[in-house]
Design brief:
- 31% of the residues lie in helices and 25% in strands.
- It is α/β, with parallel strands linked by helices.
- It folds into 2 domains: 177 residues, P-loop containing nucleotide triphosphate hydrolases (Rossmann fold, 3-Layer(aba) Sandwich), CATH 3.40.50; 68 residues, no CATH class.
- Bound molecules: adenosine-5'-triphosphate and magnesium ion.
- The site of adenosine-5'-triphosphate has 11 residues, from strand 2 and helix 1.
Length: 257
């Protein structure tokens, strides 16, 4: 992560309305390689709308996007994939009745000549991406239905690595997890950074955000409301940016972060 290098992704002046609702107004976002950027804000702040633009699911009404310093557009999910953007949406979109390998390659199975599934190559690649993430899932042949919620999230994150991505977008990856499972997923997010990827982490959980992110970008009512260095900012000032409250003078003894 470095503020001086060209960002992997740079969004400027992004606006989006749904009818009369201004979901985003002139929003800026930068993400560098080797950087985890947390995107935080209250319900309806515009986080998912912005993430969907990075994923090519929604298109901005106005604004500029640069990838690697080059102006670009991300009109479709296929265009996002071509740029190296991979997204884990909240519902994970995994299949319980299939094993880990089949889930990793869902919809993009590797084929041998003759059109047959290349199970050996897929299983070897599955093992590699699970190992790259330091996943503790013992076998790539494990049925998904045997896995915990945290391990499923790990599979969904591992799935992004199949396409050799450069930027991974995670929408609320720890929302439904226990403490131990959350710790495991946070470790995987740190692994993505170590692998050199840029990561956008959407989360309501400030403890998680503080544990893994380098910068915290706050949205409020569809507008930028502060960018904070995760290591040096106080919990109070980030909370104040999220809620719009004046910064509390006295430190809270039981601060969430
Ligand atoms: N498809 C849509 N049609 C109409 N309004 C929408 C649509 N998608 C989002 N909105 C509105 O845009 C605003 C931003 O929504 P968005 O889902 O981006 O917020 P969010 O920050 O992700 O919130 P949450 O934390 O609840 O997930 C909200 O007012 C929402 O109701
Ligand atoms: Mg959302």
């Amino acid at each position: 992560m470095s503020a001086t290098t060209t960002p992997l992704l740079s969004m400027r002046g992004i606006s989006k309305s749904f009818g009369a609702v201004e979901a985003l107004v002139g929003v800026d976002l930068d993400v560098h390689a080797h950087e985890v950027v947390a995107l935080v804000g209250d319900n309806g702040a515009g986080k998912s709308t912005l993430a969907k633009m990075v994923s090519g699911v929604l298109n901005p009404d106005a604004g500029l996007i640069e990838f690697d310093g080059e102006p670009t557009t991300i009109p479709t999910p296929a265009a996002a994939h071509a740029l190296g953007v991979a997204t884990v949406f909240q519902d994970l979109a995994l299949c319980d009745n299939l094993d880990v390998t089949s889930n990793l390659f869902l919809g993009r199975e590797l084929k041998r000549s003759g059109g047959y599934r290349d199970d050996e190559r897929m299983e070897a690649m599955a093992r590699k991406v699970l190992d790259d993430l330091n996943s503790r899932i013992p076998s790539a042949r494990t049925p998904l239905s045997w896995l915990s919620a945290g391990q499923r999230q790990a599979v969904a994150i591992a799935r992004t690595l199949i396409g050799e991505p450069r930027l991974v977008v995670l929408d609320e990856p720890t929302a439904a997890l226990s403490v131990a499972q959350t710790a495991e997923v946070l470790m995987h997010i740190e692994r993505l950074r170590e692998l050199g990827l840029g990561v956008i982490l959407i989360s309501h959980n400030m403890t998680d955000v503080r544990a893994v992110s380098d910068r915290i970008v706050v949205l409020r009512h569809g507008r930028n409301n502060g960018v904070f260095d995760a290591a040096s900012s106080s919990h109070e000032e980030v909370l104040a940016a999220i809620t719009g409250a004046p910064t509390l003078r006295r430190p809270r003894l039981h601060a969430l972060g």
